Amino acid sequence: MDSVLARDWIWAFATAAHAEKRRLTTLDSAIGDGDHGVNLCRGLSRVRELLLRDEEAPGAAGELFTETGALLRSHVGGASGVLYGSAFQAIGGALPMSEVDVDRFADALDAGLAATVKLGAAVPGDKTMVDAFTPAVTAFRDFRSAQPADVGTVSQVPARARDLADAAQAAAVAARDGALATIPMQARKGRASYLGPRSIGHLDPGAASTELLFRSLALAAKGWAVPSSA
After folding, report:
1. The organism sits in which domain of life (predicted)?
2. Is the pTM of this model over 0.90?
């Protein structure tokens, strides 16, 4: 995970969220305030503006994630701004200033999940973004743990890049499955919990946007993201 991949991931997430804004808002209208897509895109628009101003965007991956988190906390309304903002800030805070290997990035994803769980006081099964975030992080780390240890020579850099792309793809699939698993759940947290049994049968909007987050990571890791300077 270097600064280029960090920028591509954030840019890809912002692009995906804007493309899915109407769907996210529709999902939230069923069991929430009906503003998740609009609010998330408002904050991510500010992040994209930062990325387009190359001279102002932080250089190191950790700094970029931290600044992204701060912008989301400031410009995304509702709980999602605090949750996504805190997740990105925790990821950034867990990364060293130097280039980050896959294992350190797995630790950073763990930190992002922990921040989300702590702030939202949610656990898997509550019908929240945690239902997609948790299996994604677990899949990323489990995939990585199953791979042979890197020797660390220059010739193995492409292999490490493939490790990251494959681990990110595993995380994206797990996030998708976790999001879909919220449909039959009854919400136990947030505004959706006020609906009781009526929340059953709806995809949680936070889990849906978290699926976009990890799908975007997989695309960026494979080099398919739109460059942030475009």
Report:
1. Bacteria
2. no
Share of the chain above pLDDT 90, in %: 73
CATH class given for the domain over 3-221: mainly alpha
Q: Which residues contact 2 (CB under 8 A, 6 or more apart)?
A: 61, 99, 100
Q: Where are the chain's structural domains?
A: 3-221
